[in-house]
Amino acid sequence: MTETSKEPIVQIRGLGKSFGDLRVLDGIDLDIHRGTVVSIIGPSGSGKTTLLRCINLLETYDEGSLKVDGVEVGYQDSGNGARRPRGDRELAGIRADIGMVFQMFNLFPHLTAAENVMLGLRKVRRKSRDEARAIAEDWLAVVGLTDKLDSLPLQLSGGQQQRVGIARAVAMDPKLLLLDEITSALDPELVGEVLAVVRKLADEGMTMIVVTHEMAFAREISDAVLFIDGGRIQVAGPPREVLVDPTHERLKGFLSRLNPEHNWENAQ
């Protein structure tokens, strides 16, 4: 891990979000420092993905403050305590520094692996075609896909497509990488190859927020693990404290149902 700075790169205070009468996020407070990996676990519908989408403003939040690198993501102070939503150009600039990899691969089917990685570099970072191609080749090599540069998504396995998605996100040199259940759509035999890439990024000091159901993996790579339930952070702490020696009854029940054989306790 890289040495973390004293100033959090993510600062969240009192974050709230509702869909109609459904309260999805309820007073989230969270600091995340540079160079750290924070894993988020919890039952379906607990607010995990919504939290990630608010950080990248794929969902607007109703109340509270959410800053990435000192900049309020969703709103601009307009004076007298009021705030206005940011415009599309402002949002594009903020989002360019926040990479996100989704459950589904979301690759453009008509573009090759290299072209998928190059797209943001060309359109957002304004790189030349040659420079974008070189960056794409470098990152696809990092994720083990040197021999798939010119393959279309339909010619790739699910694990390979997800690795292209990761390469596309990190090629933009983001300040923060959000990973949303990136192995949930994969066959079990493909999960390991994707998690190996994430493990490498963690070792190199990439700041990441990881929503995952892979408990052993979360324990291995995380500096902290959060258990979210009912839109609130119920438990937060070091991986061993949260995943191996939990005292919170709801968390213990969640872990037991997730893996009745308790192999998450035996992760090394």
- Indicate the CATH architecture of the largest domain: 3-Layer(aba) Sandwich
Text of the CATH class of the largest domain:
Alpha Beta
Helical residues, percent: 25-40%
Low-confidence runs = 263-268
Which band does the percent of strand residues land in? 25-35%
And the CATH topology of the largest domain? Rossmann fold
Describe the structure.
Helix content is 35%, strand content 25%. It is of the alpha/beta class. The strands form three sheets. It has a six-stranded mixed beta sheet, sandwiched between helices. The chain has two domains: 1-97 and 176-182 and 207-240, P-loop containing nucleotide triphosphate hydrolases (Rossmann fold, 3-Layer(aba) Sandwich); 98-173, no CATH class. The chain is built from nine helices and twelve strands. It starts with 9 loop residues before the first strand and ends in a 10-residue tail after the last helix. The protein has helices at 48-55, 88-95, 113-123, 129-142, 158-171, 188-203, 215-221, 239-244, 249-258, and strands at residues 10-19, 22-32, 37-41, 63-68, 71-72, 75-79, 82-85, 98-101, 176-180, 208-211, 224-229, 232-237. The longest helix is centred in the last third of the chain and has 16 residues, at 188-203. Strand 9, helix 6 (188-203) and strand 10 form a beta-alpha-beta unit.
Architecture blueprint of SSEs:
Blueprint: E1 10-19, E2 22-32, E3 37-41, H1 48-55, E4 63-68, E5 71-72, E6 75-79, E7 82-85, H2 88-95, E8 98-101, H3 113-123, H4 129-142, H5 158-171, E9 176-180, H6 188-203, E10 208-211, H7 215-221, E11 224-229, E12 232-237, H8 239-244, H9 249-258
Parallel strand pairs: 3-10, 3-11, 8-9, 9-10
Antiparallel strand pairs: 1-2, 1-4, 4-5, 6-7, 11-12
Helix pairs in contact: 3-4, 3-5, 4-5, 5-6
